[in-house]
Amino acid sequence: MIEYEGRVFRPPSEAYSLIVQVTIGCSHNKCTFCDMYKEKRFRVRKLEEVKADFDEARRMYRRVGRIFLADGDALMCRPEHMAEILRYIKKVFPECERVTSYGSPASILCKKQEDLNMLHDLGLEMIYLGLESGSDEVLRRINKGETADEIVRAGLMVKEAGMKLSVTCIAGLGSLELSEEHAIKTAGALSRMKPEYIGLLTLLFELPTPLMRDWQEGRFYLMNPIEIAHETLILLEHIDSEGSVFRANHASNYVNLAGTLNQDREAMCARLRKALEGKIKFKSEQYRAR
How does pLDDT run across 55-74, given as a tens digit for each residue? Predict the structure, then answer.
C-alpha cells in the first residue's frame, strides 16, 4: 500500500480520488488559523518516489478515475517536475478523467502563464485556491502572505490557463470588528475571479493554532451563529459571480447553503433570513467539524 507521510488533507470533492503526495507539507505554513501540516517541513518529493506510489496504486486498483496531488501545495513544484508527473499519470492511468491539486497564491504567481498553460494541456484540470478573505487587513492579521489583489491575480492566471478554479473563504475570520469589511471585500474578490466553485467554511478551533491561542487569551472574538449568518448574508448580497457553484455545506457551517450564482442567491439569502428569524435551526456545536 501507499505509505503517506503525516496527516493528509484533501478537499471534500476529492473523497474518492487517488491521493499521492507530490510535495510534503505547505510551502507557506504560517497562517495563524491553520493547524494543517504543522508536523511537516515542506519539501518536493523525488520523482522516483512519486512514480513508485503511482505504480503501487496501479497494482492495487483496476480503475482510477480521479487523482488528487497532495500535500498542501503541490503546484510549488518546478513546471518541468510537475509536467513529468502529469505525463506519467497519462501513461500509467490512461483512464483517469481528472487531476487536481491545491495551489497557493505564491506557487501560482511564481510561474509564467505559459507554464500553467502547459500543465493544463498535460492534464491538470482544476486548482483549489485559498482566498480566505478579500480584506487585506484580515489577510495581514492571519499572516496569509499575499494581498487580495495578488490572490485574485493568481486565480485569474489559473482560469486563463483553461483550468477550473475552486476558491475557499472562511466566515468569521475577521471577527466581529472586521466582519462587514471581510464580507464585502471577499464578495468583491470572488466577483473579480468568478471561479467555477466557491466554498465558504466557518472558522472553528480544534487543534492549537496562534489564532486559537489569541481566542483563549481574550485577544480574538469567535463569532456566534447569528453573527456568522449576518456576515454570510452580507457576502451573498454583494457577490456577482454568475455561474459559480456556491457551497456552504461543510461540516463547519452553522447553516447549510447550496446553489449556483447568481440565480440561486436570493433563495440562499432567504434561507439565512429564516435562520435569523429562528425558523431554521443552526447546527449544534457538537456536530461541527473541520
Answer: 999 999 999 999 999 999 99
Helix axes 79-92, 47-60, angle to 10 degrees: 20
With residue 275 as reference, give the H or E element that holds it. Answer: helix 265-276
CA distance 79 to 61: 28
Predicted confidence at residue 1, as pLDDT, reads 83
- Where residue 290 falls among pLDDT bands split at 50, 70, 90? confident
Backbone region of residue 123 per phi and psi (left: phi > 0; alpha: psi in -120 to 50; beta: other values): left
Model confidence band, residue 173 (pLDDT cutoffs 50, 70, 90): very high
Helix (H, G, I), strand (E, B) or coil at 102: strand
Any idea which residue has 466557491 for its cell? 198
Report, as an integer, the average pLDDT of 116-128.
Answer: 98
Q: CA nearest 103: which of 91, 115, 121, 90?
A: 115
- For the stretch 1-15, pLDDT in tens is 899 999 999 999 999
143: Cβ contacts below 8 Å, ≥ 6 apart: 30, 31, 32
The candidate with the shortest Cα–Cα distance to 170, out of 272, 290, 281, 260, is 290
Instruction: For residues 198 and 196, give the distance between their C-alpha atoms in angstroms, rounded to a whole number.
Output: 7
Q: Which residues lie closer than 8 Å to 174 by C-beta, 6 or more apart?
A: 133, 135, 137, 138, 141, 181, 182
Q: What is the torsion angle, in degrees rounded to the nearest 10, for the CA atoms of residue 152, residue 108, residue 40 and residue 5?
A: 120
